[in-house]
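PABS domain-containing protein
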Amino acid sequence: MASSVVVGQYLTKTPVQFENFDDENIVTSSANNGKKECNGTPKDTSPALPGWYADVSWPGEAHIYKMEKIIFQGKSEFQELLVFESSRHGKVAILDGYIQLTENDEFAYQEMLTHLALCSVPNPKKVLVVGGGDGGILREISRHSSVQHIDICEIDKMVIDVYKKFFPDIAVGYKDPRVHVHIRDGIAFINSVPKGTYDVIILDAFQPMGTQCDAGPIAEVLADKCFLDSVANALRAGGVLSAPADSLWHKNFVVADTIDKCKNIFKGSVNYAWTTVPTYASGVIGFMLCSTKGPPVNFKRPINPLNPEQNGVAKGPPKFYNSEIHSAAFCLPSFVDKAIDPKRY
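Predicted structure tokens:
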């Protein structure tokens, strides 16, 4: 994604290149098409903050991570991926300068984006994930025994391969035999499927809904009514979309406008939910939950609770999501509630 600001950087005197690492700590594997896996630590760093990574995805603020070592850095025909070991957050993944996840708190985002949707409809059988190449959404879908078929559309095979190697507890989702992987453009894939194909669609490949910055062509497509019309068309009557939305703390995010846009397209229930994920800017991430016209969906009252004895391919029960957290996620602060429904105040 393009950006009008520097998205991510090493805090060093000069940009850190592979030449800044000891040669013996760099492994180039022909099996990885020449991509370098690094076990060293950065040199030539600033005396103030040596070996730190700054995530400056949002103007005016930054999250800074102490880098213990770079594990992987590679570039495909689509994007560049960096993985490093941090001192407090475990392994961190950076895609084209945007932080994707940390081992410390990835489960909060993955669990909420998945279960807010799947626990709101009875017996979901067919699910599509667009993006989500790390496999964490697949891991969470695997907890639902009613699901019979899972499609995941990820444009970049490099992303899948790197997560499988360096984040096995997240990429374990690919071990679910119900998963069918499609390496292709997600927008084209959605446009190609027959009407009413899916019970649930989870978007995990785009700039969050409501973002007002210059986020490039992918974010523009997500904001495009034609694309969201295609998503609605791919859902059955009463089917559900789950997508990341902007943080309620970002001043340019108008929750009411995003809700109104989604209501005009999906014609069913539309709700904004939120949760805390310390990795992301402001420490909060939002979600848009939308259903198409058909059997009513009350997102605030989960009717398909998780079975505590059914964990699918996941290595243990959820760490964040439960039915109480589900309902609480739709409880909004007064300033947001007032913006959505000013007549109540």
